[in-house]
Amino acid sequence: MKKWIPAASGLLAGFTAATLFFGDFSQSVKTERQSAHAKTNAEKVYVPFGEKDEYYLFASGGHSGQMFIYGVPSMRHIRTVPVFSQDSATGYGWDDHSKKMLGDYTWGDLHHPAFSETNGDYDGKYMFATDVGNSRAAVMNLETFTVRDIINVPNTSGPHCAAFVTENTEYMFLPTRFAVPIGSEYAELDDYSEKYRGVMSAVTFDEKKEKLNISYQVALPPWSFDLSDAGKKISKDWAVMTTYNTEEATTNLEINASQADRDYIVLFNWRELEKMVKEGKYDTVTGQKMIFPEKHKGGIYLVPVAKSPHGVDVTPDGKYFIASGKLAPAMTVFSFEKAFKAIENKDFKGERNGLPVLNYDSVMEREVNPENALGPLHTQFDDKGMAYTTMFISSEIVKWDPNTGETLDRVPVQYSPGHSVAAEGDTVAPDGKYIIALNKIAKDSYLSVGPSHPESMQLIDLSGKKMEVIQSAPVNPEPHYAQMIKADKIKTISVYPKDEKNKDAVYKQEDTKIVRKGNEVHVYGIAMRSKFIFDAKAKRPDQIEVSEGDKVVIHLTNIDFDQDITHGFAINSYDMNIEVQPGQTSTISFTADKAGTFPLYCTNFCSALHQEMTGYFLVKPKQ
Amino acid sequence: MKKWIPAASGLLAGFTAATLFFGDFSQSVKTERQSAHAKTNAEKVYVPFGEKDEYYLFASGGHSGQMFIYGVPSMRHIRTVPVFSQDSATGYGWDDHSKKMLGDYTWGDLHHPAFSETNGDYDGKYMFATDVGNSRAAVMNLETFTVRDIINVPNTSGPHCAAFVTENTEYMFLPTRFAVPIGSEYAELDDYSEKYRGVMSAVTFDEKKEKLNISYQVALPPWSFDLSDAGKKISKDWAVMTTYNTEEATTNLEINASQADRDYIVLFNWRELEKMVKEGKYDTVTGQKMIFPEKHKGGIYLVPVAKSPHGVDVTPDGKYFIASGKLAPAMTVFSFEKAFKAIENKDFKGERNGLPVLNYDSVMEREVNPENALGPLHTQFDDKGMAYTTMFISSEIVKWDPNTGETLDRVPVQYSPGHSVAAEGDTVAPDGKYIIALNKIAKDSYLSVGPSHPESMQLIDLSGKKMEVIQSAPVNPEPHYAQMIKADKIKTISVYPKDEKNKDAVYKQEDTKIVRKGNEVHVYGIAMRSKFIFDAKAKRPDQIEVSEGDKVVIHLTNIDFDQDITHGFAINSYDMNIEVQPGQTSTISFTADKAGTFPLYCTNFCSALHQEMTGYFLVKPKQ
């Protein structure tokens, strides 16, 4: 095909007004190219003003505790939504509601995000996530992109292996990465195998109340549970999770947890576990219903797998689960149907820690070992059912056919991908258009920001014959997984509706008031362009005066029912900032423990007179 | 020129293998187009893997308390660097050093970032910033992109009008947005004009010690000081700042601070103020040297300006300062030379609050009023000395000539720009290639993330005949200003050098140890791929056992002297996470107030065996 180039160049040389010619000709070629030909990578990822991205990417923020929202294909970072960590940009962790949700914690380690699902498809209503650092789970409402509930998960330590939801969001399962003594009591590590347990929690979500709830827990062996996935279609009542350290080592896991040739995939039927709970087959531990499988048999099985597997992923058709072993060169495809048959036939190879072990050969469909592909971690899928596995060590994504094991394509990524995420990749019907590699090492990829580098996400176009990396986007620490949803599935609101039942809300200036009860001061105020009104009848409606030591409760309502008119509220030197979005009422409670004169002001630019949106908080010293 | 299109199309139609032809021809055209012709906007902002952005953008994070680092022209968000707020992603606010720097505060409101300068040019060594929320200043080292010092600025409230540094970083000036009684004592607002003062602090930076220091303060009238700029070249010993609320209103500033037709620009000579301090012409207030201009005359002058000005910007040649009034339609160009002459001739119009007022007509060079341009806020400059002013209300950037007042070009932005930032725009030699509009309103620009929208930055290409918006980038709340520096000026390190003098650091495994002194436990540990070693001689080197109530001090050194190998350290349920970058030693101190068994782990993905990089923190219950 190269022969065309000189021919074309020769043609062009015939024109004397070459510059002018190029000027317009390139325009006309461009127009035709855009319709008839492949776009350049630059054009593929460019979203001109007036158009919008096609997908939302929700990337876990890891130890930042937050969720990062990106647009795809532009890979622009749209917003950081606070989940487990404080965020003064939105006042998250300062206003009473979020402060209470965060409880005793100021940060979290947000691992795997999971959209709510209906019939195995993302429904765009909620996003769930877990905190490995402080053992919590959270739910975010996607009308407002705000967290509605956080629960502590007792008896567990590090729910890394979550959250993945079942086909109709009946459950999300939170198995633990760390084994601890039941109830997290003190127990010596010499007693590890006897006293320590891994725990899987089955968490439900009440959509009406927007509340998470622990339905039951299962006391598993003291192994590390790493990743999980829920079944789909024929396997919808089942879920799978990988294990490592089945050696039950208690130190230097780098070496000691990689001794055995095989670890296990835990295969469980949550309908059966649910039934066991209904039948009372559990013990109560720290207020939780906990199934001890050694006492109450059934519903949980072990499938031997190559040592130290990391990811386990169910194919969109629900027929297979694919485990990837970071220390093994192979992906292993297991068949749910074969597993069901083996369970029915009690085709067991004995027990381990009270759990029946299936025969590897009875469940294994095929082992897939692309040449020189090293460190397979996670697998995603496209609209044709093809699999895409990240190779941490050989730094690439390998496309392969789970039905044949054939390697179809490979693309290098920079560098060391952990997870990858495909468009609608965890649903029963992936979109197949894009996959994003979540790379752990970014050295030399971007402008340096010192010894601590950003992570790197690379967008890969799946629409051509060959996979192609078309954009690289740096990202704050540290996405461990992400999900990508079609943009039109998410329906946000732009203004909070009036809530006449909310007794803290004030919508009319004349209803503002400051109520004093002993040493408590309750303020019912308004934020509006471009002033605060705490008591419309006072000489200075934008002043709050209290006495040193008073307990102060400020309710603030933003009565600008206009899109994008958010107000902030901070008191200088009082270490606080809250936000009121359009129509929203927020409350902040604190003690006036410093006497003096403290300006208060709107922290979120709201109008040309934003700078004038100020007042004073006066704290009269104790006599 | 359009006539060329049909001619070209006719030519192309002569080829039968049109598809193939386009395939390669477009390539050859593209190559030639790239050299000879305008790139598409997509191509202008696309930075392919292997190449790097040309500029760093440091955008203030406003009430997020952080600094956002972007690459230009790609407008990719590279990193969030924590400054005034906690950031668990980097352990900032948890390790002893950063915790001490943050002091009593958990958040800040980061306003104007300013690079250190040498001879009026950004030198790429340090970045300064102020905290409006809790009245602090900070300095960031650009070898490591970490904050090295934070100081509280006593006697002041809300140093909004900062930081802008002088030509050789002799000073940065921090004037306050809010007036408070001297020492922030309690005083009734009825006594505002008598007891309240604005305060300007002159802050110096000791590069060797990496310490900020308040050199002196000036007690100004109780007005709001809004923005400032340092002089350049002929005006290098001077600085300017805008004021509003010279009405000294104490409530409803939206109306009451906009009564007078004129406010002032404060023009001061910092060499003279420095001299006054040397001569002992100050009072001591809360340990600070404070000049009271009503007592010690000289060095400070007022220039009348159209009401409620916001920005004031010194031209690159240092000859003019340009004030923009958000409530006035005009930009006013003032001449430093004229001001110097008027001061020399004592051409004053009387005094205001003890400060001499210059005659407007004696200092004003010209008023510039582009047709229908409303809400001028801030002005930046290009390499030709042309000015670019953001128009908040008419949502555009206007290019104009400060020497003639002529309007040269206008470009709409979406929407309501506050500041803008040009490439090297605050130096004596701006680059002139790009300007970025920092827009306050982003509605409909990006995928919606609920009622709280991102802000929006728009990159404008200045290289063509007409300004052109070529990229739009969403950004977290909330950039109030930014500076853009040529990428090659910043020289980062990738690994912290060994520091044999640091008695907390341990570089050899055999030197790790746990030292117990009464109820104190001091751990000298190592983080390395892929394990923690707290005491190499112990049965379990990755275990720390203490008793309930012990004070625990953990020193942790990352001995992986390799680029991009950062380790984290968290103890489950103990609400802590710190980071050790390659070669770095961090310390965290806390009380073991919860008895039980708590897994500890590396939070920052570091190798294929990162998951195995764990251990246990055991807290023996009190008897």
TrEMBL record, chains A, B:
GO molecular function terms attached to this record: copper ion binding; cytochrome-c oxidase activity; nitrous-oxide reductase activity
UniProt KW keywords: Copper, Metal-binding, Oxidoreductase, Periplasm, Signal
Keyword rRNA processing tagged: no
EC class name: oxidoreductase
Subcellular location: Periplasm
TM annotation in the entry: none
Statement: the UniProt record of this protein carries the keyword Signal: yes
Signal peptide: 1-18
PROSITE patterns recorded: COX2_CUA
A GO cellular component entry from the record: membrane
Domain Cytochrome oxidase subunit II copper A binding positions: 518-623
EC number: 1.7.2.4
Protein name: Sec-dependent nitrous-oxide reductase
Lineage, uppermost ranks: Bacteria, Bacillati, Bacillota, Bacilli, Bacillales
